[in-house]
Specification:
The complex is a heterodimer of chains A (113) and B (111). By secondary structure, chain A is mainly beta. In chain A, 0% of the residues lie in helices and 50% in strands. In chain A, β9 and β10 form a beta hairpin. Chain A starts with a strand and ends with a strand. Chain B is built from no helices and eleven strands.
């Protein structure tokens, strides 16, 4: 089954404790992206990757890192999480082309205390 | 910077048509999208339109684009209870690398 898998689905942690949210897709998609969703703000793009070893900043990259060493994986790293990063995070992937649908994961709800 | 705006809520009666509106600011937008988000799930692409098109129809969905006014709308005909969700308007550049989403419109259906 074609899917985008994020882990963990839920995480409560404390300020400053490094964490990684994994994202994996099995569709051989070139493009992958991370978003955060906050009430009243919709989805905001954090980072995206057009292909392996190619990443670029979205609208809200501060406090986040990503890497794309393999095509299928695109982890999101919070080196020193802060409470303002408490949010619902989505990973997405798509094939090359703006008319291709993005496939979204089910989301990761992070709470930073 | 680029911005996409939508009203937050819409309530319609079952069987009526729903019209969700969106405005955007980036005149160089190439793709305009409508996504649907059901509770506890990620987003699902419903439809998209190229910026050089005025209208696109797909079964119960009709997208209208007024490029001059930078206004996009989604019409859902014969709205059903299964259409209850949050609907996001989004726009992107020609490479579709950066995508800007609106804040979403929550559609509720009353009997």
């Amino acid at each position: 089954e074609a899917q985008v898998t994020q882990n963990p689905r839920y995480l409560i942690t404390v300020t400053g404790k490094k964490l990684t949210v994994t994202c994996s897709q099995n569709m051989n998609h070139e493009y992958m992206s991370w978003y955060r969703q906050d009430p009243g703000l919709g989805l905001r793009q954090i980072y995206y990757s057009m292909n392996v070893e190619v990443t670029d900043k979205g609208d809200v990259p501060e406090g986040y890192k990503v890497s794309r060493k393999e095509k299928r994986n695109f982890p999101l790293i919070l080196e020193s999480p802060s409470p303002n990063q408490t949010s619902l995070y989505f990973c997405a992937s798509r094939a090359t082309g703006g008319n291709q649908p993005q496939h979204f994961g089910d989301g990761t709800r992070l709470s930073i205390l | 910077g680029e911005d996409v705006e939508q009203s937050l809520f819409l309530s319609v009666r079952e069987g009526d048509s729903s019209v969700i509106n969106c405005t955007y600011t980036d005149s160089s937008s190439t793709y305009l999208y409508w996504y649907k988000q059901e509770p506890g799930a990620g987003l699902q692409l419903l439809t998209y339109i190229f910026s050089n098109m005025d209208m696109k129809q797909d079964q119960r969905l009709t997208v209208l684009l007024n490029k001059k006014d930078k206004h996009l709308s989604l019409r859902i005909a014969d709205t059903q209870t299964g259409d209850s969700a949050i609907y996001f308007c989004a726009e992107s550049n020609s490479s579709a690398s950066k995508i800007i989403f609106g804040s979403g419109t929550r559609l509720s259906i009353r009997p």
